[in-house]
Amino acid sequence: MGKQEEYLKISEEIVKCAGGMENIQGSAHCATRLRIVLKDNDKADMEQLENVSRVKGAFVAGNQLQLIFGAGVVNEVYEVFARYTHTENMSLGDLKAESAKKQNPVQAVIKALSDVFIGIMPALLAAALLMGLTGVLGGLDIVRENETMYAINKLVSLASNGIFAILPMAVCYSAVKRFGGNPVLGMVVGAIMLDGSLANAYQAAQGLADPEVISLFGLKVELVGFQGGIIIALMMGYIVARLDIFFNKKIPDVIKLLVAPLLTVFISTVLLFTCIGPVGRILSDAITNALVWGTNHLGAFGYALFAGVQQLVVITGLHHIIGAVEAQLIADTGTNFINPLMSVALMGQGGAVLGYLAVNWKNVKTRELCIPSFLSTLFGISEPAIFGVNLRYRYPLIGGCIGGAAAGAYVYFSRLTAFGFGTTAVPGIAIANPANNGYVNYIIAHLIALLIGGLVTICFGKMAGKKQPVSKESKSAASEAQIFLKAPVRGEVLPITESSDPTFAQKMLGDGIMVKPQEAKAEVLAPCDGTVKFVYPGGHAVGIETENGLGILIHCGVDTVKLEGEGFTVCTKEGSVVRAGERLLLFDKELIEGRGYSAEVAMLVTDRPENCTVKVEGLAENL
């Protein structure tokens, strides 16, 4: 079986397990996952989806059904799946917009925070890596004694500090962009937060600077800068975006260019110093103080608790907000103790995968699933391990949490911290703080998480008995039958290999026929008795399923989805029971060809029962 045939079969299984073609609203993919928006998530059979070939895990997050395939494979699977489901023109942004409609307020806030930091993450990672490098170089005698080496380290140090010096500005810029405003206005407000005429926030906090106090309608306002004000910048980004959108809607076009940005920036500045800034400072201090209190008063237990449950937070999607807390922590204290805890928590889950693999080594599918899932944890990606193995079989998840907790306690005793955030596991060693033998302790902490996570999982597995992946039940063979199909439109009937669409011609979606319609106003008729399973929005495609499970796709034209329904008339609806020859669609052949598209009609057999042959009117050979 070739790749295209394999991926087509996978696509068919996904559609069936996801509640049918009519339940699929859209699809897209990221680096490792196929993301699908369903009309009703409850119709998805998650257990069966997890057992689809090549699927390493299935879960619903952010109102998206997410199937983990891994880097590279997901691109190839998506290409076939998108064509099969007619969702190939949907971008990841479109999918996010569609799924966002189904998010509750908490999910929406978390998603927004994640989007803000994704935009500036490359700069943060670069700065963190450079900070780790200068930390190493600064401790070497050869660097201090050699002029060139000293100069290089000095430049590395300058490069590492750049993003942190303007981080509130970068966050405000990214936040305004995320919330739909003019991001340049966010940059302006971010610059106001760091204005040199204001008292430096760090110096003011230490009593080394005396901020100017002004009176605004009797309200005393301290003119203190917002260095390190990450949460304040997030809040201001939202305010700026809302004001920008409001004024651009309300102000007449004649004066909009001048007045709208003026009002946005001025009102944002007033709000910054009168309410958003003070409230943000209280919130920022509360979060940082709570974390510092926990480490000071709960000691090793606090660290162990955080590392033990952090990957459970990943399951909920709430972990995205931790980035903002880490950024605030670095701004306030200069180091980040959360990053090593998150890293060992991830490595504990990696150890649990190895433990589960050891218990079930003889199972081939387990090896195919566990090995790449573990390798992904080495590079800071835990989703394949969590959703593909540990959460799926439960006891490995517990074993991984115990491994992470044990390593978290070691992080406390070794006083391990980091200079940045956003990268963990093997790459994370580059941002580890070298103080207190940081690099050695980083390695030891991760080995503890790996070994304990694996050993505990093995013990749990032995006690519970080997739990192999659930196998699919074999389908009973259908009785031998022949199905006769009529051509869906009047015209010249040709094999599907004659189609001008390479996807159809290569039979990627199934065997069938191509018809060149002879009428200017073409009528699409049901090729057999059956049930209409879906009608694509716009009316250029319809799917029918016969009583014995034969799936038929009728697709009118090539790339006609771009017409967005123009020239098409739908004469049926999803769920309708139709008879052979009953009208399904009408389309304007002349309009389609006049817009530069082919009006050929493809009819494909997408799903065929066993022991079933298909004969098509006008075609000599069976399909």
What does this structure look like?
This protein is of the alpha+beta class. The protein has 4 domains: 101 residues, Gyrase A, domain 2; 189 residues, no CATH class; 141 residues, no CATH class; 136 residues, Glucose Permease (Domain IIA) (Distorted Sandwich), CATH 2.70.70. It is built from 22 helices and 18 strands. The strands form 5 sheets. A 7-stranded antiparallel β-sheet has the order 8-9-17-13-12-11-15, with no helix packed on it. Strand 11 and strand 12 form a beta hairpin. Helix 1 packs across helix 3, helix 15 runs antiparallel to helix 16 and helix 18 packs antiparallel against helix 20. The longest helix has 45 residues. The chain is globular, with a radius of gyration of 30 Å. The relative contact order is 0.08.
Helix amount = 40-55%
Structural class: alpha+beta
- Catalogue the unreliable spans: 466-479
Q: Could you say which overall geometry the principal axes of the C-alpha atoms support? A: globular
What is the number of domains? 4
**Largest sheet report:** 7 strands, antiparallel
Tally of DSSP β-strands: 18
Number of helical runs? 22
